[in-house]
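Quick start: read one record
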Amino acid sequence: AIDVDCVQNEAGAEATSPIVTTTAAVTRNIDMLSYQSASNIDFTVGTVFARFGSPSSAYIGYPVSCGNAGRILYGAIGPDQVRVYDGTTVISKATTGFINGNFVKAASAWSSGNSTQKLSVDGSVTVSGAFDGSMGSGAVINIASETSSAQPVYVGPVAIYNYQMTDAELQVITS
């Protein structure tokens, strides 16, 4: 006897988790993780690392965010950039690495102590900008928050640190 369970024909290049049903077809919702921000992130000082990419050439989304003000890492196209936004200041690093099936390693770091936010992508020299004192707000950290299900993003691993990494540390972690 042969037993088969959770057979799935993948429409894309990446494997997805099974959705167990009886005979009905279902629509897959966007995969997005949410974690409480309390005890998991300090909005006044910290560092976030993420590896992310999209099979789409039109991806615009938020691999790691804490509300509208607090786009800790996000991708934007035209020009292709990885960005950080504290609610006041956007800092950007040009790249084409996160679209068309490619991946980037990016890290953002911030500190109210020196009023600076930083960004490094794929081991690049760190870009810095002014920091308004809070990297977002709210009760939730979102991982893989999308602007459209037609523009998926694959995110992982993600790490959150409770201090602002130095430029050298940012370059090493994203290499």
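The radius of gyration is 18 Å.
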